[in-house]
Amino acid sequence: MNAEESVELEQLMFVEEPMDGDDPRVHPAWLPPEAFRSLGARRVLLHGEGLLVDTVLNEVSRACARYGGRVWHSPSWDVDVDLVLALRDAGELPNPSVEAARAAGEAALVELGDGGTLGDEGFVLARAGDVTAVLADAPAGLLYGLFHVVRLCAAAFDPARPPERHRPALRRRMLNHWDNVAVHPVMGQVERGYAGGSIFWQDGRPRGDLARVREYGRLLASCGVNAISVNNVNVARTEALLLTERLGDVAEIADALRPYGIRVHLSVSFAAPVLLGGLATADPLDEAVRAWWAATTRRVYDRIPDFGGYLVKADSEGQPGPFTYGRDHADGANLLAEALAPHGGVVHWRAFVYNHHQDWRDRSTDRARAAYDHFAPLDGRFRTNVVVQVKFGPVDFQTREPVSPVLAAMPATRLAVELQVTQEYTGQQRHVCHLGPWWSEVLGFAPWGPGGRTIADVVTGESAAGGGMVAVANVGDDLFWTGHPLAQANLYTFGRLAWDPRRDPTAILDEWITLTFPPSATADADLVRRTLHEIMDDSWRTYERYTAPLGVGFMVNPGDHYGPGVDGYEYTRWGTYHFADRDGVGVDRSRASGTGFAGQYPPYWAQVYESPETCPDELLLFFHHVPYGHVLHSGSTVIQHIYDTHFAGVEEVTAMRRKWQTLTGMIDPSVYERVAERLDEQVRCATEWRDQINTYFFRKSGVPDERGRDIY
Ligand code: GCV
Predict the structure, then answer these.
(1) Ligand 1: which of 190, 315, 352 to mutate, judged by most atoms within 8 Å of the beta carbon?
(2) Could you identify the atom of ligand 1 that is nearest to the CA of residue 313?
(3) Which of 14, 202, 235, 309 is deepest in the core (most CB within 10 A)?
(4) Residue 272 has pLDDT above 60, yes or no
(5) Cα–Cα nearest to 388, from 285, 309, 440, 466
(6) Closest Cα partner for 632 from 700, 642, 553?
(7) At what angle do helices 539-546 and 669-701 cross, to 10 degrees?
(8) Which PANTHER family match (predicted)?
(9) pTM of the model
């Protein structure tokens, strides 16, 4: 067989597979075939071996088959190429221009400094003559490098492009699925899921659509996610069995995701030794319990050698935990960590622990304090393969909360910050609420004072050994993955921020727009880009304006957490109160006269938050109970601020809807229609929020709107 025939054969091997992005059951999200046009029109040489190298080969082959390019895998003859994707330790090729490109990549690495290593996931991109080279130490690096080239489009082939090196700031970039295997009578198939059913489970069984799981892995890898947990942190009987009898179901998911470099983790029940093992106790210090976890974990690794580890919600909202046995969270976490350690696994132990049977009459108990009170004293006691996973705020994924003080209180512990991509409290994927700016604010917060280390630094840790970033996922079996097509951007943004927590969220959004609505397939690309930015950039602040004011939180309907319910949680056991009366509103969390929560911060912020005079406006009611006439730093009174922001919020949503209408006929009609429907609902719901909040506070305070607008 001559060289040309061999090339044809190599190409044929790959074009027979179905094209990604062609499956009519599912929207291609940010990886439509068109996004691969630039890559697919090139001559590409791939060099190296491994499962993920095969994935890269498949991706490139499909793109080339579609757009007329060519691909060679480690050819033993000379070829002209535009792009080389090579493992650094793969042998020399008899191809001078390819070797020159590789040498340019190596030289770039030396020039960029830092020891010249790229690690398990990094890559370098450099130009040599007419060739772009992407080099990596390991196959995952090549996969991430490939998606980088896709994002860059033609810019990846710009002769003037300077060399660049990329490595993820965080080792673990993880999504948690709150998917139930068996449909929960209240929470359904996916707890806090707003995108249909689960992509993994259906009515007590695996869903069996592994092609979709694989497609999901592809989307995640392309934005940088490398780990997922596949079942809800609230572990019921059926879900507990995933650890033992039903481990095969987890293994199938792991097999589908492995080609995209994604490791699978499992939420487990702390009571598993009793529930599944028939032991009389789950006491973490009991020898039989330790042996049970060790043996069970060994069996997990026999079946799934690259298994990531366990995720645990213990002693929280009714889940079992070490408190039953008079032990603490370090005892509990270390038990599982010990079982995982020989296999390289980690335990993610959640810090979301509080009293969910609080008496609303008791003002001395403060849910915001709980995680710190439980966990800060345990600093230094966790094994090195424990990651304490801390919700970003002290309460519960609200639209606005201060950053959790736990993140500054455990220097001797690996900490991960937990975000919520699923929009439980931020519009439930019926409202446009782009969360990138909020997450960036959280990650950029400097708990020890301005200019000091940030939350991004904490979760990165020394030599990237921190706990990383975790988020509750927002996808389901919906045609658009996320219910609201624009909520795909939140998932994408999470992945990109987890890769680099210091990136500008607007730039990330821009990247998402370019991929999802490729300019080459759009009649007026500038209009589409501009309109999406206008709708999405500030949408989190818009959402904040028409919902609970000034950081006070909640005010949602109890149970489903959608829509306004100002007093919905006021007299409940959940510890989520606003204390509005005829004189004022807010929670006194100062040290001087309140719950003392402000004192959980390092001195700079403890002092800032302590006084209503220095507390930032947006958090005023989180930290203080103030009269309606209290004057904010903005110059407005609290009551007038409430009225103004609520009127403004609805106007902004109405404007969003108008702007969206300018895209009629410009984009995929099914996307257009779905977003249009949801914007109608957003306008309706925002109006309801405005009227209920304004009316509530007008009735409480008796203070009229100084602009005389309609309040009921
Ligand atoms: C999985 C909130 C949600 C619960 C969720 C819990 C958690 O309270 O409303 O549905 O349970 O957080 O994070 O564990």
Answers:
(1) 352
(2) 14
(3) 309
(4) yes
(5) 466
(6) 642
(7) 40
(8) ALPHA-GLUCURONIDASE A (PTHR39207:SF1)
(9) 0.96
